Amino acid sequence: MRRASIKDVAKAAGVSTSTVSYVLNQKSSESISAQTTQRVWEAVRTLNYVPNLNARSLTSRRTNLIGVVIPQTEPGKEFMFSNPFYGELLSAIEYTARRNGYHLLLSGPEPDQSYVGIARNRGVDGIIIVGSYPTKSLSELHQLSVPVVLVDTYVKDPVFHTIGIDDRLGGLLATRHLLEMGHRRIAFVSGSISEQGVTQKRFLGYMDALSEFSLALDERHLYLGSVSFEFAQSVAQEMERRGNRETAAFATADIMGMGLIKGLRHMNRTIPDDLSVVSFDDVDLARMSDPSLTTIHQDIAQKGISAVEMILAAADGHKEKQESILPIQLMVRDSVRRIDPNQESGAF
Amino acid sequence: MRRASIKDVAKAAGVSTSTVSYVLNQKSSESISAQTTQRVWEAVRTLNYVPNLNARSLTSRRTNLIGVVIPQTEPGKEFMFSNPFYGELLSAIEYTARRNGYHLLLSGPEPDQSYVGIARNRGVDGIIIVGSYPTKSLSELHQLSVPVVLVDTYVKDPVFHTIGIDDRLGGLLATRHLLEMGHRRIAFVSGSISEQGVTQKRFLGYMDALSEFSLALDERHLYLGSVSFEFAQSVAQEMERRGNRETAAFATADIMGMGLIKGLRHMNRTIPDDLSVVSFDDVDLARMSDPSLTTIHQDIAQKGISAVEMILAAADGHKEKQESILPIQLMVRDSVRRIDPNQESGAF
DNA sequence: TTGAAAGCGCTAACAG
DNA sequence: CTGTTAGCGCTTTCAA
Fold this sequence. Notes:
The structure is a homodimer.
Chain A lengths: L5 H8 L3 H8 L9 H14 L5 H8 L4 E5 L14 H16 L3 E5 L8 H7 L3 E5 L4 H6 L7 E4 L9 E5 L1 H14 L5 E6 L6 H15 L9 E4 L3 H14 L5 E4 L2 H13 L9 E6 L2 H5 L5 E5 L1 H16 L7 E4 L1 E4 L17
Parallel strand pairs in A: 1-2, 1-3, 3-4, 4-5, 5-11, 6-7, 6-8, 8-9, 9-10
Antiparallel strand pairs in A: 10-12
Helix pairs in contact in A: 1-2, 1-3, 5-13, 8-9, 10-11
The structure holds a DNA duplex.
């Protein structure tokens, strides 16, 4: 038995399809008699009718679909996210979208980094892009005449809406905290520093803090790789190999902080006694970790909520570029200890 | 400037729309001259044409859309998943779907637990449902004539495809390991035991293991709440309160194992010295945890891959019910220690 | 207050 | 080998 269509409803109610359409969409411009309305709803009920949104979008030119692009955490990895940050963010996006009558079309980036095809194929009403991508693939998005919200990237663009945090400030807060706690040799552990990504800003913040304490950047303290637990774990050995005797580390993601701690533990180091660690994000994990992580807290859920709201606003005709910088704060937990700045000892 | 439609392409190429359609869909039944084909592709390129999948689905009756329903981890929680298990699973689903030309329509369950509306609205080609839901809302899915894959649930149904693991065996392996390591008073820490959920099976496995060692179930060792880090953390105190002097615990999810460990640490207990812990899932976190978790490994990515493959097979006309039970194994890591079964001491 | 009719972008007989 | 035509399910002028 085929799905009931609007025609079936019209027939059952003894009216025309347009009348059914009016009733369904509560068009105030057309006024339908209470009686007719009644009969239509009855038919809808008995036929168990559900409108076909694809057909609707053909005429109405809106799909009530929001495209979401989540990055692969690591270039080589097949799957999108091992970083729970994305799960938390996605949850918030999904929930907010659904509450507003939108559905989510989820996608990882195509191998060629182009999402434009999918978006055009499906005629999404808006796109939320998480993370940073090659400028080229972003510029393709201009072809689409749909609102685009960029989450956590620093591309300069006159039309894309953006939402993020002050990553540089975050880097500053994190590093300053370590400095205030007496640390002077501070490792910077992160994924690679890309032009428009958040890492670069966090790195600038790291340097800002050093400046505040009249310290020069020492490149030997930089440990750059990928944003993954595994890489961070390996950094522990690298720290020993280099012999820089760091007493603290700023890891630019909680999972990296955790990886680092795990790596150190394997070498029989204790946290925070042998090395203090500050990380970034404050995913649920940060609290779960042991010791719980001192980290830069950002409101991940709010990021998702705002992203959706920006799409909605734009869809409602709000044409100006929207920008939002969410607040962050240092969460002091258990992974940092105070030391005497003059002491010469370090874990390595 | 409006998006180019098939008509524009036809005009530009000097052919009819059907010819364009044939070329686009590589219909082997219709043979188009090389020359025409050439001209069509040229027009497609210059006009930057992308077919409208919504319109296509109107006639072709397939949307190349797979609906995915991910549960809210906790009833009260607004957002879907704090358990990274879902992130890992979703990643695999998304990747596999995309490789096969399908896109994902993501949704949490509606407040009324009904997903049927969305699925019908959008005309998805298949649905993947993760976790267990009220039988009632599942039975509504029968109305849809699309393949449904149920992941991790034990509802008996003649048409829904299922994929899962032998949770009972998992419970057995976990608990047996603890018994073999000399433990006798073993806490069972889990979310509530629901009829068709995985927890119940894991619980049965727990009892199976006790039987193997001729031990009776002692209900005082049961700690039931929600599948969350927080609840598990609180169990630590509850264990002390009850004073059962357990020497080990079987937690039915890694995040619970981690929560429990964290809770115990807060009470200055050491893992595994004061309490041995075995958990379940082997999410990335399990390795990241410290001590790393001895846990029941399941291939989360494969679960997602298989789920999508089942949909594809069904869409290709494979009508029989498909069932898949993926292998599991005990991963021995660092959260369990061997004790003398006769010793009377315990953490509490 | 309602209906007829055209059309959204695409596919698929069928005819030539 | 290619075009005509009808129609998928819905919305929306326009006319009655």
